[in-house]
Amino acid sequence: MPIPNKSVRVTGTWVQRWLGLGMMMCALHAWSPTPASADTVTLKSGEVLEGRVLSETDTQLVIEASFYHGTIFSTREVARSDIQSVVRETPEQKQEKADYEALATFTLNPNQELTTNQYDAGIAMFQTFLTTHTNSPHAAEVTRRLADWRAESSDVASGKVKFAGAWMAPSEKNLQQARATLQSLTQQLAVLQQQRTAQADKLAATQKQLADAQSRLASMSGGSGSAAKQSGRRDLAGRVTAGVVGASQGENTGEPVSSPERTRVEGEINSYQQQVTQQQGVLASLDAKIADIQSQMPTQEQNYQSALAQSSGATPSNNISVAQAPSAKPARASGTNTLARTTRAPAPAPEPPPPWYTRAWKWLHG
């Protein structure tokens, strides 16, 4: 059925607004195009159908069943011989269900207290439900929730605040938050330091592989000409000619004879150079993250010491040493060494070797 053309005006205090919102939600739920009554048909197979009975005869029953919390509807024809029981929900039961579902919007935050007006609104809604539906099967649960809301409202009235599911003084909450922030930065710094050490070792290993490949390529360039001449003298007549021609071309053009091994080594060198560039980029990124956390550590240590002093009633000192924060000692000790490493510029990538024809020309002409 269509929603009646009605307007609701919510004014007054926050309590009245929350109550008005709850009443509007209940009204909208009642006006929604869902079945007017919720009937439950239990089959002998154990299947349970909930919805609205559309028609029934001596031999069968037709029910508009709802699934997935009333979002999907399906019409089913069920034989009377397959039905174990039929239970029809009364309008009072339907209204109770709607009112109970409206209470789902009132939840407590385990890490943050609510305002006084929010507590008053929630308490009023719970009390209204218990007064209206005295025999509800949800009465015990709603009573427990009402007690929780009243207890938190009393804690807020006494000046306490909530943090990590516990109630404490505001100064203690500041201390807990400052300690948690400082410990989080310390843990992040330790993880980044481990990652940097592993990345630096990986970069050093790749640079060593690159140097070895460049050394092998240099040795190939140095002996290619003489190897061609000697191989020509040892082969049969047809191969001698080829060998001499290849050697003479190398002497005239200054280009050493290429080989598959040489091509493979050059490919290794290009691959190692790309890996070195990438690994240096990762190392620079880690250095930037470490430096950022180290720049935050003094401020967070100062906040922790100030919160600690306020919690104990002492006057915070303007000159706070790192050793005064117990949770920050390991971070600063390891961070000092890391800072010394990160301030050092990364090892530059080795220069690529000169073209092979340049090295051949130098070898031929001394």
Structure description:
The chain has 9 helices and 7 strands; from the N terminus they run αβββββαααββααααα. By secondary structure, it is α+β, with helices and mostly antiparallel strands. The protein has a domain at 172-364. The strands form 2 sheets. The protein has a 5-stranded antiparallel β-sheet, with no helix packed on it. A two-stranded antiparallel sheet has the order 6-7. Helix 3 (116-132) runs antiparallel to helix 4 (139-157). The longest helix has 65 residues, at 170-234. The model is unreliable at 1-12, 26-37, 225-253 and 315-346 (pLDDT under 50).
Record the SSE blueprint:
Layout: H1 14-31, E1 39-43, E2 48-56, E3 60-67, E4 72-79, E5 83-88, H2 91-102, H3 116-132, H4 139-157, E6 161-163, E7 166-168, H5 170-234, H6 237-253, H7 260-312, H8 329-342, H9 356-364
Antiparallel strand pairs: 1-2, 1-5, 2-3, 3-4, 6-7
Helix pairs in contact: 1-2, 1-3, 3-4, 5-6, 5-7, 5-8, 7-8
What's this model, at a glance?
This protein is an alpha+beta fold.
Features:
single chain; 366 residues; alpha+beta; 5-stranded antiparallel beta sheet; two-stranded antiparallel ribbon; 61% helix; 11% strand
Q: So what's the overall shape?
A: flat
From the alpha carbons, calculate the radius of gyration and give it in angstroms.
40 Å
Distance between the termini: 101 Å
Overall pLDDT level: 75
Largest β sheet strand count, sense and barrel closure:
5 strands, antiparallel
The structure class reads alpha+beta
Low-confidence stretches: 1-12, 26-37, 225-253, 315-346
What's the number of helices? Answer: 9
Strand content: 5-15%
Strand order of the largest sheet: 4-3-2-1-5
How many E-type strands?
7
Would you list the SSEs in sequence order as H and E?
HEEEEEHHHEEHHHHH
Percent helix, as a range, is 55-70%
